[in-house]
User: What shape does this take?
Amino acid sequence: MNPDGTLNTAVIVKLEPDFSEGNVSYNADGTLNRAETKNILGPHSAVASTAALYSKVKYGSRVSVATMGPPIAEAALQQSQLICDADELHLYSDRIFAGADTLATAEVLKAGIKKMANGQPIDIVFAGHRASDGETGQTGPQTAWKLGYPFIGNVIDYDVDIKRGYVKVQRLIKSYGYHDIIEEIEAPLPIFMTLDPSFIPFFNTISQRLKLARHQKEAIGRSSQYKEYLKVFSAQSLEVNSKAVGLPGSPTIVYKVEKIPRAKANRKADVIDGSSQGNIGQVVTRIYDTLGGTIIK
Amino acid sequence: MEKFDVAIIGGGSAGLAALKHLSNLGKQAILIEGGKKIGTKNVSGGILYSKNPAVGKVYNVENIFDNFLKDAPVERQITKYILHATSKDKVFSLDITPTHNYQSNFGYTVLLNKLLTWFAKEALQSAENLGGGIVLGVHVKSIIWKDENTIIIETDELEPFQVKAVIAADGVNSEIAQITGARSKFTSSELYQGVKVVVKLPEGLIEERFEISENEGAAHLFAGDITLNHIGGGFLYTNRDTLSVGAVYHYDSLIENPVEPNELVNALLSNPFVMELIKDEVPKSKDSYKNLSKEEELRARFKSNKLIKSWKDLHQAYYSSSRISDLLASGLYKTKDDIKNKIDSIHNELVSKYDIGFETNYVELEYSTKLVPDGKRGRMKKPYYKNILFIGDAAGRGIFVGPRIEGINVGIDDAVRAAESISKSIDQNNFDRLGERYSKLVEESPYTRDMNEIDKNYLKTFLDCTKQVPKDIVGHRYGTIFKLMSSNTLRNISIGFANTLGYKRLLPILESNNTYTDVPVEIAERAGRDLQKSYSITIPTIAERIAKLDYNDDSLSHIKVLNSQSDFMKKMVTLCPTKCYSIENERVMLQHEGCIECGTCAKETDWKHPRGEKGIIFQYG
Assistant: This one.
């Protein structure tokens, strides 16, 4: 938190291929043609940026956005700034960062986050659920671990109690085939959270709406001159250990991604004639038996 | 609970003018708008006037928005105002530009989506500094009085908030008027139903066809057989590179003799005279490529669509001097002929390689409808309820006298009067007489005078224009009316006569099938020039028109049918402009999904505006 009591927040984003129709291009062997495909701010990164905007509107937070990548990754920062009206943009760019897996990326991000907001501690770090061109969903949790921050995933809503220094979050837990559960958790700041793709910020007072409109307007101005907010860091200026980053710092390599084949359904269906009341009773009993055990209050 | 000074409900032209003027006066105001973006729920014919009455003062758009004349995205300044009498294959045209110029500084054609976005930008700059602003996507559902001078506003989306005064600018179907009981819903005799289509036409073709320069515009009005025997008429206004073509009819004449609103606009579009004005070269998309394999067909379709797109773009650009200079400056083309050659080569490629045909037709962009309150009959005599002031359409204020068609300017004048009244109350911290003060200011407006009595000088100006109608075509049935038009003495007598008769008794004579259909048809038949169709027009079906519109569908209906068997509701099956009603087992059924929120069915339904951000999204308006 800043001396004046405002929150410091950070968003981690990624420049990803635009998989929307007409923008994506594939090689003959079915792999992604990265040269031909347009790159944009990843959809999950956009959700994380929205979460930062929410904290900016609701709590007047300061927002820093960071990404690791080649110079073109600036585009992701600019697009994120357009969403969250960021006060500071960080690009971590160095040849030796190339080939990094999630752990080596986390090392760079950790070092960068510590340099944000003029070295003031960051209270909340937001990140997306996962990247659309990687399938691990690990960079967020590993950065949290390196920072020593508690990690909360699948967040769909949050509230900060600034006086107490606590955050209350709601997270969506999908138990496929059964009910979705909404879990409410309270945790002391600082915190690292990743947002569920279904996160939609809701602004329910007039003053929040007015602030939102002001930030949206300001964001258009800022992002059109995003270079003024941009700081580029190399391995040296980040003061990272060159053995902990890039290829040397990566214990894993994603070799191939495969879809898990869907298991065949083994349900059995009974046909029940609905004309008599007794038969309908059977249906109700069956529904009750199936659902009864999983209803969570 | 959050507290603000003033809430303005509705972000149309009147509401935004109120926000701007309150901010100019240094007063904090919050404007609440249901649409997700400003200008997406608004429709106008539309000409925006600035007036200069001989007696009294009106507040004009350029008085409120200082940058209006310099910056506002208006379309064209009207310099030609022409009335056409049509019969099946003849038209008689009457130049009535003097009636347009009558006591007016200017009249611009406008498209509301564009214009209101600009109004909002201008208003917001002043409002924000005072802690006010615009809140979008919010629907006001109720109003509660905490005490005489404290109003609590409840919405579907936000926590309730508190204000000292409210300006209700929520349009012809004002819910605030219903919630407060300030007025009953407008009756069919107090309303017009307007239908409009926006037609695409290259800038240069507009100027050539309407015989206007780059800075000029034309407005054409129509009466006669195109009315399909209803009281009202058609209009065709030139915008920058589009045309607004529409039909406006007395609602009670539609109730009496129901006809589908799209048929009324179609009657105008398929008039040979109008057809010539709207025609353009149009590529015909191909339905199937029979000889090609699936993959080749997709490829051909993709390529030809891309070519059609570039052809359309260049076709538009070629007829616009500014676009031509842009293209030449870009270095892509060296001369204007290069552009023409490119257009021709794309054309040839489309015809020879992809078998795409070109035809003469017209290009329709957007279909819309709106109810218009007739100020002569429907204006609120007391346009307030406690601390809530009604302005513009919400207060039923529009001036419609023959070819005099004004609405937006009246709403802006109301907005200033409301803002002035509230500002005074805030300064004195006394809201006791706010409503009366506003009402008095509105009564002083020259516009109110024009709603109460006929302006004999205007009538004279109009009748003077009708001198052009040849005298020797006097028919038996319409003898008096023809004589009125052609004789100087009779004209003067009739003006005096009009004064003695008074507005109320004069209106049924002025606004009759005789005036709008029979007499114009007779004039066209006897004195008009022959018309011939030079091509056959393909008009989109109503289903195609709806399919082109943009909606944010709501699963909940904002309209509830109260009596599914009433005569009125049965007429809605015909009169709903987007065919939301159908009859099943003699009961009227509603499918709200295609609704464009005009309020035609509001009289006998529980009619609300959709929740915030939901419903129709007009792109032109």
Summary: The first helix of chain A runs from residue 43 to 59. The two ends of chain A are 36 Å apart (CA to CA). The domain at 8-249 of chain A is CATH 3.40.50.620 (Rossmann fold).
